[in-house]
Amino acid sequence: MIYFSTIKGSLVAISMTAMSLILWLSGSFWYDAYVQRLDAAQLLQSVETEDLLFDVSRSLAEERSLMHLVLSDPESIHDSHIQKANTQRQISTFQFGQILSKIATAMKTPSHVRRMTFKPDAIHETLDQVQKLSIRLDRQYEQAIEQTALSAITHDERIQDSIFASYTALINETQVLRRAVNFIPRHNELDISHLQILRVATWQFSEAIAKESSLLSGVIVSENSLDSRDLQKLESLHYETLGVWKTLKRYTEKRSADPGLTAAIAEIELRYFTEFVKLRRKIVDDFRRDGKSAMTLDQWQLVLTRSTTELENLDRLNSEVIKHIAVDVEAHGVRRLIIDSVVLSVGLIIGLAIIGIIRRVQHQATHDALTGLPGRILFEDLLQHALSESSGVTPVVLLFADLDGFKHINDTLGHSVGDALLVQVAGRLKAFSGDGAIVARLGGDEFAIIKRVDREEQDIAECANRLILEISREFQVEDIHTSIGISVGVSVYPKDASSANDLKKCADIAMYHAKADGKNCVRSFDHEIATIYKHRVKLEADLKKAIDERQFSLVYQPQVGQISQHVEGVEALIRWQHPERGMISPVEFIPVAEDAGLLGLIGDWVLDEACRQMAVWQRDGLSHIRVAVNVSAQQFANANFVELVQSICHDHGVNPVNLELEVTESVVMKDINRVIDTFNRLRDLQIQIAIDDFGTGYSSLSYLQDLPVDTLKIDRSFISRLDKEKSDKSVAHAIVLLAKSFGLKTVAEGVETEEQLDIVREFECDYVQGYYYSKPVSPNELSGCVQDIASLHPPGRRAA
Prior knowledge:
This protein is α/β, with parallel strands linked by helices. Helices cover 65% and strands 12% of the residues.
């Protein structure tokens, strides 16, 4: 049982592991696709927010350039410049509102917040800083415009530097915010990180160009000469511009660079940046040489407009590439999500199927397939659990029940009827036992009931007797009405035993005694029953030893022909001379041998010994004597039985025609087709066959005419009451008439009185066996017994 449980546990563990692996893989794939799709969607939101931040940065940069012009020479500035600056300020303010709304929405999504470059606290801090700078700039802008309108501002580099610094600080903080909300996907399989780096580099280049251009615009409009401070500032800004340009160009060297972006950067270098550098150098050289530039403000503004357009195109193209990648990733994620959802569903279905299979396997392994009751293995676990829970405080009753008469119903009415009957019996047992009890089928027609009882409960045997009455009620299987009995053995924990194994032994012993006492009754375990059981166990052990040590012997009882009045045959009868107990009757040890499965071995020995003795008698001149040997069901079930008989006859050199095998009706009716085949094969060897104890079983006359038999033996139970019971006389007479109608011989077994002999002679019975002629005699006594019987004339004399 431990081995089976281990194997079962291993199978369950393997199955559960496989199921878990399937579900884990399916779930992982589905989650991976879900995350990829979610990342792509959130990346698109992030790109839109970054585009707005980029747009507001450009607006601020353009606004800064306009304000730089206004503050450089207020008198030369037209109203259109002021109006344009106001419009730009409104655009910037509106864009800031959109940005704050989008960021607030994104911050409400935890999965989005977790993938931002900055942590939430840092993002909020940056937002606060942007708002503060924006408010300060608004105040400075309003003051500047108001003073400009009143023509009260003269060229003051401190005011110009202050508002220039405020614009620059707000633009820089806007870019910090842009980096803060930058979304980092969990699955970067398409590698968009270099595109995000390119966006930063594009802005940095745009900002560097804007700052340098603003300063140059102010120089052009003011027509002031460039001092060393201005030159140093221009050179520093230009150095910054060149550095960012190198970073921007470095993208084109990547193998994974987008062709469109590479072409756009090359176009900027060719059509704009090279020209910007030349013009910037010309403006500086003109101021150094002539103190003024030959280039007008409108010409320079045209250059700046082109730069803004080119850089906007580059950033827009970059944004579109990122969006295109994000859309592709999202679409790919959606496809994977659909596929993986199907896979996950299939995985769940497979998982549930595996769980169902495991449960069915466990149920099949632990429950009886026919009745659905717990099987023997589960029963033992449940019994052990019940005893553990009881702890010796609450008594636990164990009932072993064995059906009486089920075998006959199963053999005669068929297995389908037998199975249906077992199902109904199981139903009655469960209904009778109640919810708190455990009913199990141990195998065949054996059942067990585990029941917890209170100390005050009435006599347990009375409860078991009610169970017998319940099972004894008539059953209906299809159109068949039938009844069976039940033998019940009862043991109680802890009164009768202190362990599960001992408790089962006690219940089994009690049930054995219930069957031995006439069946369909209850026996509770007690010390008297235990003593009897120990005696049975000892007898079984002695039987095994007797087989090994050949303690058995045979005696032979003559069968006298009623026409010849001579001994024409004998029946071989076994005797056991126990070394300690002396002679033990077959009535005592044969049932024990049958229950222990030893009757086949004993029967084979009897057949071999009878044939050996037959060979001796043939050499001594008794070759006409026919020897009848009883064959048990265990022997007849042997598929090689005919070959065994043939081999024994050959080994001892006996003529098979003098051998007769006696088989009981119960053996014949087990499998009629197989029996007929076996009988035919024995008849081919010229071995005679007799049906023993005829009339006590359940033979069918329709089968009898098909059976290749020679003799019917009338059971001694009928013969012993011939002179007392009219019904027995009628049965015996009917058997003789039946045998004659089928051309069979008859043997009257157990004839002891002259009155009985006269009756069987009146019936014209062929052979008589019994104490009237002779008791069973040893092989050495048979020769004298044969002579004594032959010397007698009818009616003969009674044997001593």
